[in-house]
């Protein structure tokens, strides 16, 4: 059943030309394969790029894994008049993918018109709503639910430069007369305009007070709700707060299995566990590693991924990791002076035990560092390295909070952590077997 879908969807029609070019490419590269790949394996290798998509959020329900609790929470907000939701968490954990799935998960439970906009640093409260109303109008044109007799909304009556919370509420009230609305503001953390978030909180309050059948979903990178809307207390009763954690091992396994089922491929159990371990709960990494492991297996003429393919996939992934991540690793570990332990200390930081917000203490670095360097370390032996790694000269790869005794550190970007681990294996900073013993998901 899956077999047919794979072969048809990603490579049919106009994509055939791309497949042809890709096949030519495969015959010249493909992980150093000795024999040319068969057309079937070449097509699969091409299709893998639209199944495992490190660069793009998920758009298909079949490829979406886990996140049951978060989905139910958002559906709760949408289905109860007067409730709104805020979805927050680390970068790259799957916030946009989850919101893309909303209509699929709402299914027949409720017909809603869902519109999404991406916020950016130039946005004001008015520009956010101008974009949102344009998006709602275009969604209404594309999906004219219950619109047979209704003219399009009087959105244009709003003054684009001076939209107020009350104006936005009135417009939404008109627009939602025939169908409930869901308006998603993604990347809300990028809004910098003073006052925009206060006005958004006022709008949410007003929509709740007037019981308007429109749900606002705010999404952004933040450790806490205050990080996105400081004035959230004023709307606390109307706002369902949903934290998006990293994925569990089972959820990462599901990403791998769903994708491989689509590709009619399989994976050896040990290889799957390696992918899970190195993904460290970050779905972006699971996609990146799975994609290159698949291609390594196919290039070797097999539809079954082995641990060797994962190792090759890992090396290929390191090359294709976001450039900014590679640059910050280089910046943090540059130099060759004696007693220079930046690579080892950074790896120990990536393996240290963390709290819920992924902060660790210097004490938590001691044990992994002793294992990595194979000698006993005290905090005083590496404290200077931690300090340097949190300063501008080394690109502030660590964030530091708290003073003297309460100091805690955090790796500045969640995608750096798995990079540091895999890069250390490649550079032989530590044997893989030692690492596998200390990695905590
Ligand atoms: N539930 C999921 N199932 C399968 N893959 C997922 C899931 N969630 C996220 N992904 C994958 O993880 C990667 C990051 O997802 P996404 O862009 O949705 O994250 P995000 O939290 O919105 O990131 P950012 O903070 O950068 O906006 C993408 O490759 C996406 O395909
Ligand atoms: Mg996103």
Describe the protein's architecture and organization.
It contains 19 helices and nine strands. It has about 450 residues and is α/β, with parallel strands linked by helices. It folds into three domains: about 1-60 and about 250-320, no CATH class; about 65-245, Rossmann fold (3-Layer(aba) Sandwich), CATH 3.40.50; about 325-440, Arc Repressor Mutant, subunit A (Orthogonal Bundle), CATH 1.10.10.10. Bound molecules: adenosine-5'-triphosphate and magnesium ion (MG).
What is the gyration radius calculated from CA atoms?
A: 25 Å
Strand content: 5-15%
Structural class: alpha/beta
Largest sheet: 5 strands, parallel
Count of strand segments: 9
Instruction: Specify the CATH class of the largest domain.
Output: Alpha Beta
Q: What's the CATH H-level homologous superfamily of the largest domain? A: P-loop containing nucleotide triphosphate hydrolases
CATH topology of the largest domain: Rossmann fold
Gap from first CA to last CA: 34 Å
**N to C succession of SSEs:** HHHHEHHEHHEHEEHEHHEHHHHHEEHH
Question: Uncertain segments of ≥5 residues (pLDDT<50)?
Answer: 1-12
Mean pLDDT value: 85
| Ligands (ions, cofactors included) | adenosine-5'-triphosphate, magnesium ion
Q: Into how many domains do the coordinates divide?
A: 3
Overall, the morphology is globular
Task: Specify the CATH architecture of the largest domain.
Answer: 3-Layer(aba) Sandwich
* Strand numbers in spatial order across the main sheet: 2-3-4-1-5
* Count of helical regions: 19
């Amino acid at each position: 059943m899956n077999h047919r879908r794979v072969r048809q969807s990603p490579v049919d029609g106009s994509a055939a030309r791309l497949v042809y070019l890709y096949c030519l490419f495969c015959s010249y590269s493909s992980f150093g394969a000795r024999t040319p790949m068969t057309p079937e394996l070449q097509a699969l290798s091409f299709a893998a790029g639209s199944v495992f998509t490190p660069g793009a959020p998920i758009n298909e329900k079949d490829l979406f894994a886990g996140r049951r609790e978060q989905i139910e929470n958002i559906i709760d907000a949408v289905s109860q008049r007067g409730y709104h939701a805020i979805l927050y968490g680390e970068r790259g954990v799957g916030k946009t993918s989850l919101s893309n799935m909303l209509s699929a998960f709402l299914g027949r439970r409720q017909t809603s018109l869902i519109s999404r906009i991406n916020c950016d640093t130039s946005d004001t409260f008015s520009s956010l709503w101008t974009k949102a109303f344009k998006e709602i109008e275009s969604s209404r044109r594309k999906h004219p639910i219950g619109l047979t007799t209704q003219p399009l909304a009087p959105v244009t009556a709003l003054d684009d430069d001076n939209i107020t919370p009350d104006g936005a509420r009135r417009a939404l009230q008109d627009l939602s007369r025939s169908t409930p609305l869901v308006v998603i503001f993604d990347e809300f953390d990028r809004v910098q305009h003073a006052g925009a978030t206060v006005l958004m909180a006022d709008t949410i309050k007003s929509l709740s007070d007037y019981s308007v059948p429109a749900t606002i979903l705010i999404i952004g990178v933040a450790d806490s709700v205050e990080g996105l809307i400081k004035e959230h207390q004023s709307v606390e009763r109307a706002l369902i707060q949903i934290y998006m954690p990293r994925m569990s091992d089972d959820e990462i396994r599901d990403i791998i299995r769903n994708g491989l089922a689509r590709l009619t491929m399989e994976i050896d159990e040990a290889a799957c566990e390696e992918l899970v371990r190195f993904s460290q709960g970050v779905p972006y990494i699971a996609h990146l590693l799975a994609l290159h492991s698949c291609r390594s297996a196919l290039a070797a003429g097999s539809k079954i991924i082995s641990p060797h393919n994962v190792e090759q996939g890992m090396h290929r992934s390191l090359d294709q990791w976001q450039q900014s991540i590679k640059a910050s690793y280089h910046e943090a570990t540059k130099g060759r002076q004696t007693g220079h332990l930046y690579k080892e200390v950074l790896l120990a930081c990536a393996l240290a035990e963390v709290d819920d917000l992924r902060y660790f203490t210097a004490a938590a670095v001691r044990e992994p560092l002793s294992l990595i360097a194979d000698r006993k370390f005290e905090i005083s032996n590496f404290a200077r390295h931690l300090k340097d790694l949190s300063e501008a000269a080394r690109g502030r790869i660590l964030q530091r909070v708290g003073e003297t005794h309460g100091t805690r550190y955090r790796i500045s970007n969640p995608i750096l952590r798995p990079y540091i681990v895999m890069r250390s294996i490649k550079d032989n900073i530590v044997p893989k077997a030692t690492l596998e013993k200390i990695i905590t998901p």
